[in-house]
Amino acid sequence: MKAAGLAINVTNTAVSSIPSDAQIVVTQSELTPRAKEKAPDAYHVSVDNFLSSPSYDLLINQLSRGEKAEPEAAEESSVAPFVDGDILRKENVFINQSFKSKEEVIRFAGQKLVEGGYVKPSYVEGMIARDQLMSTYMGNGIAIPHGTEEVKKEVLASGIVIIQIPESVDFNGNKVRLVFGIAGKNNSHLEILSKIAVACSDVINVGEMVRAQSVDELITVINHAVAQNA
């Protein structure tokens, strides 16, 4: 919405924290019933694919027909940048990997978050539970497994693990070639999720990440994608 020059305050939040006076609420389709309970008077948009959604595009077009304001000045982020050295370390980027199942890759990502000191071991089960509750496949060949609300207390620090899987792994019938395992302290995972979604909304960026031959190359592509949409 900011990219479209719309003077609208956009906030990422958990469904349980949606304010009752929200005017527009965009959620994955599985979460829409709960969102409507939290904000019954809001205009609700349900999407199946956050990276490519006709419903969301239609909303932007409808809003753009009104008065178009100047883009807002960038606000200072409440968390470190997506590519910050503490959140994304080179040793937590894994290229040319292969896995037999989505559970295997989710557990791999979770274990690396544990080894990196980002989460307690019990957070990994929360990642598995999250994907069982609602698929963490986001479209464009990427998945973003993260823990449920119940394991937020197991997060020690915000962190990301990136896994490149050139030959793909199946996520409920969808071929996933990039997995972003994340943990966010104090709900910062919502901002991290947003930055990943924006960076991966362009299939060209995703293709370059999948074809990257080194950790440095993959991080460079992400840096560029995030900077373009900052």
Descriptive terms for the model:
230 residues, alpha/beta, Rossmann fold, Mannitol-specific EII, Chain A, five-stranded mixed sheet, two-stranded parallel sheet, globular
C-alpha end-to-end distance: 13 Å
How many helices? 7
Q: In which range does the helix fraction lie? A: 25-40%
CATH class of the largest domain: Alpha Beta
**Average of the residue pLDDT scores:** 80
Pfam family, one: PTS_EIIA_2
Domain PTS EIIA type-2: 86-225
GO molecular function, one term: protein-phosphocysteine-sugar phosphotransferase activity
Protein name: Mannitol-specific phosphotransferase enzyme IIA component
Topology of helices and strands:
Elements: E1 24-28, H1 32-38, E2 43-47, H2 54-64, E3 93-94, H3 102-115, H4 122-133, E4 137-139, E5 142-143, E6 159-171, E7 174-183, H5 189-199, H6 203-211, H7 215-228
Parallel strand pairs: 1-2, 3-6, 5-7
Antiparallel strand pairs: 4-5, 6-7
Helix pairs in contact: 3-4, 5-7, 6-7
